[in-house]
Design a protein that fits this description.
69% of the residues lie in helices and 0% in strands. Helix 15 packs across helix 17. It is globular and about 70 Å long.
Length: 465
């Protein structure tokens, strides 16, 4: 904060009280934990079975995706040096290209949140089936998915205190099966279980891109430190470091855990499994009790993850609505300070999405929703990379460090290409639905912008009322 100027010769006015600045409470350790905690969510419990039809090429895709996620983390770190404020993926495109680009990024990110929530609710079904056999009844499976969606919403309506309590318990529990398989599980791996390298029948590059598009779902959250930059101490340095460290730590747990699942469960069984981690633990223990215990842990963990994501999905439009970029009802808060309208909108949209896609069963539904999430999540990544390329092309020394021009240009180009590659790998159906969701926001922006301009402009004489 700069000191007030004393060069004015006129009589000074009474000093105004200093503006209150938000407390920056996140150090490197906390910011890294935030990134890692948000990346390691509930989707990983279903993803090994989802990518198994592609063969062990999906393990290679995990490695490629890990490198790409680190590139994105580096990108967000560089952008946070220029705009060390809360908002991240919304702020960067807005500053570079204007309000409309910022809105599209925010709208797409919000869409990613509630589609991701619907996918997580579907992921619960396979593990509930281990505890209470559903016998392939799609109606019962849909009821379980909707219950998994609405119960965490009820916790949100009860207030943020309950949300925080559930988050602490579920965060501890979700690391249990992952760390178990990433360490102990590796000693029980049988290489005969891995199956063919490319089981998809497609080309290796095509299978690599398709499996990576699915696996991106497990890395959503790499942007967490950038989104929360306003709460991070020394964000110009900390955001980049926390993003990279959190991404590397998550990638290590993911890759080792997935290798263990592939090596513990025969390929043919893994393809048809709705609860791959439960099947992997059963292979270690030689019975069903271990898988039942892990299934229970997975249900609690995924439900807790839903609890946090629902709150996140409600808070983003709450902040945008306060800036006039989302409908005003999203800015309303209810009991315990929770944006009640945002929570309700999120779960209602998730309910509709599950109902529209559930006739094909939980496995196909989860796959479809994950791919839509990939598209809607990559749009803000693309726009953020484009924003960095814009500032580099302008070459303003106040915004770009000349000594790091080559490095920053390389990171931005790779991040843009990586995001574009993932969108292409998502397939036509996911891109089609994702584009519809994205374009559905344009009338909302037009209405809000028109109202904002009307209220801000002086009335013209003779203009019709």
């Amino acid at each position: 904060m700069t000191a007030p100027s004393t060069t004015d010769a006129t009589e000074p006015e009474p000093a105004a009280p200093p503006a209150r600045t938000p407390r920056r409470t996140f150090g490197l350790t906390t910011a890294t934990a935030l990134v890692m905690g948000n990346i390691i969510g509930g989707g990983i419990f279903a993803l090994p079975a989802t990518v198994a039809p592609y063969g062990t090429v999906s393990l290679l895709a995990f490695l490629v995706l890990s490198v790409g996620a680190v590139v994105l983390a580096l990108l967000f770190g560089r952008l946070a040096r220029r705009s060390p404020v809360t908002g991240g993926l919304y702020v960067y495109p807005r500053d570079a290209f204007g309000e409309f680009a910022g809105f599209l990024s925010a709208w797409s990110y919000w869409t990613m949140c509630w589609v991701s929530i619907a996918a997580l609710a579907v992921a619960v079904v396979g593990y509930v089936d281990v505890l209470i056999p559903l016998h392939g009844n799609h109606t019962l499976e849909a009821v379980v998915a909707l219950a998994a969606l609405w119960l965490p919403a009820a916790a949100n309506f009860a207030g943020t205190r309950w949300v925080g309590t559930v988050q602490i318990v579920s965060t501890v529990l979700k690391f249990v099966p992952l760390l178990l398989l990433a360490t102990v599980g590796l000693f029980f791996v049988d290489t005969d279980n891995f199956g063919p390298f490319n089981a998809s029948g497609d080309s290796v590059p095509g299978a690599l891109a398709a499996s990576a598009a699915l696996l991106l779902y497990s890395f959503l959250g790499v942007e967490s430190a950038a989104v929360s930059a306003g709460e991070v101490r020394d964000p110009e340095r900390t955001v980049g470091r926390a993003s990279v460290l959190g991404t590397l730590g998550s990638a290590l747990v993911y890759v080792l855990g997935t290798i263990a699942v592939f090596g513990l469960v025969p390929h043919g069984q893994l393809v048809d499994s709705g609860a791959p981690f439960a099947a992997a633990v059963n292979a270690i223990t030689g019975g069903s009790w271990g898988g039942t215990a892990i299934a229970l842990v997975a249900v609690v963990s995924i439900t807790g993850c839903l609890n946090g994501w629902i709150l996140l999905a409600a808070q983003m439009p709450y902040a945008a609505a306060r800036d006039g970029l989302f409908p005003a009802p999203f800015a309303r808060t209810g009991k315990g300070g929770v944006p009640g309208f945002g929570v309700l909108a999120c779960v209602v949209l998730g309910t509709v999405l599950i109902a529209l896609n559930y006739t094909a069963g939980p496995d196909t539904t989860f796959r479809v929703l994950v791919l839509i999430t990939t598209f809607t999540g990559c749009v803000p990544y693309l726009l953020s990379a484009a924003a960095q390329l814009y500032w580099l092309a302008r070459g303003t020394r106040a915004r770009v460090r000349p000594a790091g021009l080559v490095r920053d240009l390389t990171v931005a180009v790779l991040a843009f290409a990586f995001s574009f590659w993932l969108i292409a790998g998502a397939g036509y159906a996911a891109v089609y639905q994702g584009v519809l969701f994205l374009f559905a926001g344009i009338p909302v922006y037009v209405w809000l912008r028109g109202r904002k301009d009307t209220e801000g402009a002086p009335a013209e004489q003779g203009a019709p009322a």
